[in-house]
Design brief:
This protein is an alpha+beta fold and 113 residues long. The protein has four helices and four strands.
């Protein structure tokens, strides 16, 4: 089985997020507790987005433990929600879609959608 490529993963995530009524902008610069990251997709009004971490896009240099910790701090404070998923943790586009839908379901339960 070949890995899900960056463009394919981004397309799956965009489709999932837009199906839930989010208005996705691509390649959004975000500052999180003084740490910068460019998210693959983000709805500024709802403060919800996603990042598909791939070697192909060079994301491993940007999505460091410090960046993840800063995003998690902002998520814990309720100021945003970001679905971070690593290509190494999924096996297919269907697997990625299922993970994204689980995230969106949880966000919905918390009243953020």
């Amino acid at each position: 089985m070949r890995p899900v490529r960056e463009a394919e993963g981004r397309a799956v995530l965009r489709r999932c997020f837009e199906a839930r009524g989010l208005h996705i902008e691509e390649d959004v610069d975000l500052q999180a507790e003084g740490v910068a990251i460019v998210l693959d997709g983000y709805d500024r009004a709802r403060r919800l987005g996603y990042e598909f971490v791939t070697s192909e896009a060079g994301d491993r240099e940007e999505v460091t433990p410090e960046v993840v910790a800063a995003l998690e701090a902002r998520m814990a404070a309720g100021s945003l929600a970001v679905f971070l998923v690593d290509e190494e943790d999924i096996d297919s586009e269907a697997d990625l879609e299922a993970a994204a839908l689980r995230f969106l379901d949880e966000i919905g339960k918390r009243g953020l959608l």
